[in-house]
Amino acid sequence: MKSPRVLIQEVLAESRLTGRLFVIVEGPTDKRFLSQWLQQTAPEFSQILTVMTSQGVQVEWEQLAEIGLSEGAKQRVVWISLQIPTGSVGVACVADLDCGLLSDRFDAEQLWWTDYPALESYGFEPNTIDTLNRMFLSEQLPAGESVVGLVLPMLRDLYRIRLHNEDIEDPLVEKGFGKSGWEPERTVPPHIAARLQEFEVGETNDPRKVAYGHDIARVLLGNFAAEIKNRAKIADPSILETSLRASILLSGAFTQSALAHRMLEWLKDAHDLAAPERIAVRPSPDI
Questions:
Q1: 234-285 pLDDT, tens digit each
Q2: What is the separation of C-alpha 16 from the centre of its chain, rounded to a whole number of angstroms?
Q3: What are φ and ψ of residue 25, in 5° steps?
Q4: Which residues share a beta bridge with 113?
Q5: DSSP 30-86
Q6: N or C: which end of the chain has fewer CB atoms below 10 A?
Q7: Distance between CA atoms of 162 and 205, rounded to whole angstroms?
Q8: Cβ 212 vs Cβ 121: under 8 Å
Q9: Would you say 110 and 92 are in contact if contact means Cβ atoms under 8 Å apart?
């Protein structure tokens, strides 16, 4: 049975009264990832911190529409963050950057965007790919640096499609792998494919900036079908994504990020401001 939704004002009140800290994220995957990361990185805060999802907070679609947002987990996190008064220290929100289209419009003191499009994006670097290969893929892939170099152009193509088509449904990544090699125009409807050459994206020295989260596993499977599907026995992109997130934790890629440092600093500062005798210890709700 799901826990009932709470008002953001109730979360803020509990934080003020008890000193408990709250991080509100988009969905269950984000909650599991950040909860595990915090447990292994800063276990001293685990008893005073609740990571909860946006679905656990009461948000009406009319409230989203009032500020130009549609229904969705990310939009809910944005709206929630805007309800947190300036100067509040016990409640923070984390949302996926995606292509930056919402972060350009909304800025709140306690709204933190991922450094890259999504949590999975932190893993698109050689060390984490090597960890993924070693721990979950039976060492079937080439070296991580070679993998990143090979699939980066494909992820960049998908990123620029998303960047210039805000309301597009997910590109059909699997269709992009044809007999002639990678054909990004096959992943989108004809009217978008016809304009593909018009879509530009700035150059970056960091591949993670153009690695859209849900595209990474699909592009890896498209390039290394025999190695991943047949030999490592992982055919489902969602399972590969789960393995990638685990590899990010194992490699320490997220811990080294700007967002991770910001979260740890916030935890320390917020904890120091709360009177220890007022902190109510209770388990994190499953919301």
A1: 999 999 999 999 999 999 999 999 999 999 999 998 888 765 444 444 444 4
A2: 28
A3: -120, 175
A4: 95
A5: HHHHHHHHHHHH-GGGTTTEEEEEGGGB---HHHHHHTT--SSHHHHHHHHHHTSPT
A6: N
A7: 20
A8: yes
A9: yes
Diameter over CA atoms, the chain: 66
Residue showing tokens 């947002």: 69
- Gap between the Cα atoms of 24 and 52, Å rounded: 5
Please give the structure tokens belonging to residue 263.
């979260």
| Residue in the structure block whose two tokens are 């210039």 | 164
Q: pTM for this one?
A: 0.92
CA distance 132 to 102: 31
Q: Is the dihedral of CA 45, 47, 49, 53 positive or negative?
A: positive
Nearest to 165 by CA among 189, 147, 131, 130: 189
- The answer to whether 21 and 50 are in contact (CB under 8 A) is yes
Among residues 214, 213, 215, 225, the alpha carbon closest in space to that of 141 is found at 225
The CA–CA distances, whole Å, from 261 to 41, 112, 115, 212, 236 equal 11, 12, 11, 22, 33
**Residue 77: left (phi > 0), alpha (psi -120 to 50), or beta?**
alpha
SS3 21: strand
Extract the tokens encoding 214. 């849900």
User: Tens digits of per-residue pLDDT, 48-103?
Assistant: 999 999 999 999 999 999 999 999 999 999 999 999 998 888 999 999 999 999 99
**How many other CB atoms sit within 10 Å of the CB of residue 135?**
14
Q: 155 CB contacts (<8 Å, ≥6 apart)?
A: 124, 207, 210, 211, 212, 215, 216, 219
